[in-house]
Amino acid sequence: MSNVSLSFDGNRALVALDRPDKHNGLTIPMLRDLVRVAREVGERDDIRAVILSGNGPSFSSGLDIAKATGDPLTIVRNFVPIPWRGTNTFQEACWAWRRLPQPVIAAVHGHCYGGGLQLALAADFRFATPDADFSVMEAKHGLIPDMTGPVTLSRLIGIDKALLLTMTADSVDAAYAERIGLITEVTADPQAAADKLAERIAARSPHAVAAAKRLFDRTWQQGTLRTLGIERATQLPLLVRQALGRR
């Protein structure tokens, strides 16, 4: 049974993380499902926007460390990048949404931590409830954000703020996240805000919308795949230390 649901409402794809009892903690099968669902959506010419959300009390509490690290061989297999894609499973679960021609809008509530935050950052827009909170929490586990976070963080906020969030692993509220540019807007109803934006964008040429997304992705900052490679190389020795029981 998949913990990532996909449904369609007219010209919108509705994608939801569906592991509510665990605050949508991400497992490796969920990461694979995110890649699969993104690919499926990308093949639909009739879809004009994607809304990404989480069922239950939170958008996502991040990677379920206990589940994800239970089988070291599985970690290794999914950590190795696919040569023609340039990303591994952890990275592609997020970056697949940036690859889509359609705009992706994240509707965030509750906790948005770690890998869940990196998934939200891979969306083109992020609406969040006033009580949502955000954390680049990998440092709590002796790790770094390695699901495309360094790429998206560097595009959205200054390096000092990115380092502050990454080094401290502090949780910040939605008002602060909006102020520094981590999210697009604070709103009482992120789903409704996402619906309205999707409707506005759908009124424009899908070719122009796709071209705009492609243009900004290619020109905002260069060297994405190089950055992702550095991300993996930096994380690998930390994962080895974790496996050996060191911090």
UniProtKB/TrEMBL annotation:
Q: Which reaction does it catalyse?
A: a (3S)-3-hydroxyacyl-CoA = a (2E)-enoyl-CoA + H2O; a 4-saturated-(3S)-3-hydroxyacyl-CoA = a (3E)-enoyl-CoA + H2O
The UniProt entry, under Pfam families, shows:
ECH_1
Q: Which GO terms describe its biological process?
A: fatty acid metabolic process
| Protein's UniProt keywords contain Glycosyltransferase | no
In Gene Ontology terms, what is one molecular function of this protein?
isomerase activity
Identify the SUPFAM superfamilies for this entry: ClpP/crotonase (SSF52096)
Which keywords appear in this protein's UniProt record, sorted alphabetically?
Fatty acid metabolism, Lipid metabolism
Matching entries from PROSITE patterns are given as: ENOYL_COA_HYDRATASE
InterPro entries hit by this protein: ClpP/crotonase-like_dom_sf, Ech1-like, Enoyl-CoA_hyd/isom_CS, Enoyl-CoA_hydra/iso
* NCBIfam families tied to this protein: PRK07509.1
Task of the protein: Could possibly oxidize fatty acids using specific components.
Q: Which family does it belong to?
A: Belongs to the enoyl-CoA hydratase/isomerase family.
**Protein name as annotated:** Enoyl-CoA hydratase/carnithine racemase
